[in-house]
Amino acid sequence: MSLSRRLARPLLATTFAVGAVEALRSARDLAPQAAPVADRVVPLARRAVPLPDDPETLVKLTAGVQLAASLALATGRAPRLAAGVLAVTLVPASLTTHPFWSHTGEQRRSDLRGAAVDASLLGGLLIAAGDTDGRPGVAWRARRAGKDARREARHLRRVARQEARIVKANLG
Prior knowledge:
Layout: H1 3-25, H2 27-45, H3 55-75, H4 79-97, H5 105-130, H6 138-171
Helix pairs in contact: 1-3, 2-3, 2-4, 3-4, 4-5
């Protein structure tokens, strides 16, 4: 692993670990703030995973998932998966903590800055989720396997034609 990855992954994960611990400590206070987003996101997400209705439980669940994923990203354990999980949980968390559309004045500017920071973090997570650490990704390996299979099939057809000519010549 390169030096930049050894530094970048833990640095990126730090924000999520700190935020998750804070959210776990103050889940009761964050629940009313999370309720409007939870009301919209939970019904959509339920198609894929079962989620609780209670906003406080949802805040704790999100914080726990973010804490586990941030630790995985920081330690290099399944970093692509961890970055993907953090990216998925960042969007509703950002909508909850930075509702700039519902404020005016200084509060709106503050929320807009927070949303911009979260957008930057999302960009970093997307890069980390796609980072193969210099090794070929699954898509490349699949294309390569297809190419190899086509090349092998052409070779086998040539060999089969040659063998057929030899057999025909010996029989004929």
